[in-house]
Amino acid sequence: MAQIPRAVVVGGGIGGLTAAVALHRRGWRVTVLERARSLEPVGAGISLAPNSLRALDVIGLGDEIRELAAWQGDGGLRTPSGRWLMRTSAAAMGERFGGPLVVLHRAALIDKLAAQLPEGAVRTAAAASLTDPGDVGRPARVGTSDGELEAELVVGADGIHSAVRRTLFPEHGGPVYSGFTTWRVVVPVPGTAFASHETWGRGRIWGTHPLKDGRVYAYAAAMAPAGGRAPDDEHAELVRLFGDWHEPIPAVIAAARPEDVLRHDVHHIAEPLPAFHRGRVALLGDAAHAMPPTLGQGGNQAIEDAVVLADRSAPEGPDLAAYTADRKPRTTAIARKAVGVARLNMMRSRPGIVLRNATVAVVSKAGPGLFLRSFDSIADWRPPRPPYASDGAHTRETPA
C-alpha cells in the first residue's frame, strides 16, 4: 500500500486553511500549525470576488459563501461631502463575471474552512520554524515545541512577515511600508440604511459595507508615518479624520467603541520573490506576494494560490516549479496594479484630486461596464480544472 503523503501548513489563516482543505481532498495527510491560541481572526471583514468564489467551488464552499452576499443593489464611489463620483452595480458585476462580490466577516470564512478538515488536523498555539526545506531525495522538516515534523510538502502561509519566506530567501529585502495606515471595524449600526460605498478624500479613504448578519464592515486609510499611533485612542483619531464626512460615516464611528477599532500599517512586497518555492516548500498569500488592499485582492489571491498549489500537488509528488510558473506572473501584475491604485486613491495634491475626480465622473457616465472592464483580468480568473469533489460543488460559467 502506498504511503499517504504528508503536508504541513505553517499558518492557519484563510490561505493556509484553504490549502489544507484542498490538499486533504487530494489525498494528503495535512497538519496545520497556527501560532495563535485559536483560529479566531482579528475582527475584520473580507471581500471575496468571483475569482476566489470559483476557487472555493473547488473545495465545495463556493455556494455557501455566495449565500452570504449582502450587497444586492448599487453602490459606488463618493467624495467626503457625499457627492457620488461613480455608481457601481452588483447586477452588472454578476453578469460580467458570473457571480457576486461577497463581503463577510473573516471569522465566518475561517469557521467554514476549518470545519472541512479532519479532527486534530489543526494545532493552535503551535509556533513553527522551517529547519530544512528538503529536496527531491529528502523530506522537508519543520520544528515545533513538540519536536520535528517531516513532510513531502510544506506550505508557508504565515503572512506578510513570514519566517518561512526569510528562511527560503534570506537575501530578499522583505516587505516595505506602503505609506499609509488602515483602521477597520465591524459593528451593528441600528436604523442606518445605506448603499455600499467607498469615499476618497485628500490622502484619506473610507469604505462602508453591509454584512448579511446586519452588522457593518467599515475600513479607513490615511497617509501617515510608519509606526504612528493616536495620542489618545484610535476611535478618537477616526473622529478627527472622518467625523465630518458624509453619512453613514459619522454614525458608524459613533456606533464603535475604542476597543472595536483596529489599526495596522500597510506593507507590501515591492520586489517580487525569485520564486514561490524552494525545495519542498511553497509560499502562498501575503508570504509570497503581499499587496496593498486597494483592489481588495489580497485574500482572494491567497485562495487562488491554495487551489492551484493543491492542483499541482498530486499525491505522488508536488510540482512546485509549475506552481510558481502559474502564480508568480499573475500575482505580480495584480500587486503592481494595487500599488498604482493606492497612489491614485491616496492622492494629496489638490489639482491632482480635481483631475482624478473629474476623470472618474466621466468614466461613470459611460456606465458600470467601463469601470468593471478594469477587473477583466482579475475577477474572470478560473481554477485550472473543475472541482475535485462531486458533492454539489460546481464551476459557474460566465455569461458571454
3D architecture notes:
The strands form five sheets. This protein has a seven-stranded mixed β-sheet with strand order 5-4-13-14-15-12-16, sandwiched between helices. The protein has a domain at 6-73 and 99-175 and 271-345: FAD/NAD(P)-binding domain (3-Layer(bba) Sandwich). Helix 1 (14-25) runs parallel beside helix 10 and helix 2 (50-58) packs parallel to helix 10 (298-311). It is built from 13 helices and 20 strands. With 400 residues, it is of the alpha/beta class. Strand 17 and strand 18 (281-283) form a beta hairpin.
Number of strands: 20
- Output mean pLDDT: 91
CATH domain fold name of the domain at 6-73 and 99-175 and 271-345: FAD/NAD(P)-binding domain
> What's the arrangement of strands in the largest beta sheet?
5-4-13-14-15-12-16
Backbone CA Rg: 21 Å
Q: How much of the residues is beta strand, in percent? A: 15-25%
Could you give me the name of the CATH homologous superfamily of the domain at 6-73 and 99-175 and 271-345? FAD/NAD(P)-binding domain
CATH architecture annotation name of the domain at 6-73 and 99-175 and 271-345: 3-Layer(bba) Sandwich
Distance between the termini: 47 Å
Helix segment count?
A: 13
Query: What summary fits the major beta sheet?
Result: 7 strands, mixed
Helix content percent band: 25-40%
- Principal-axes geometry comes out as globular
Can you tell me the residue ranges where pLDDT is under 50 for at least 5 consecutive residues?
Answer: 388-400
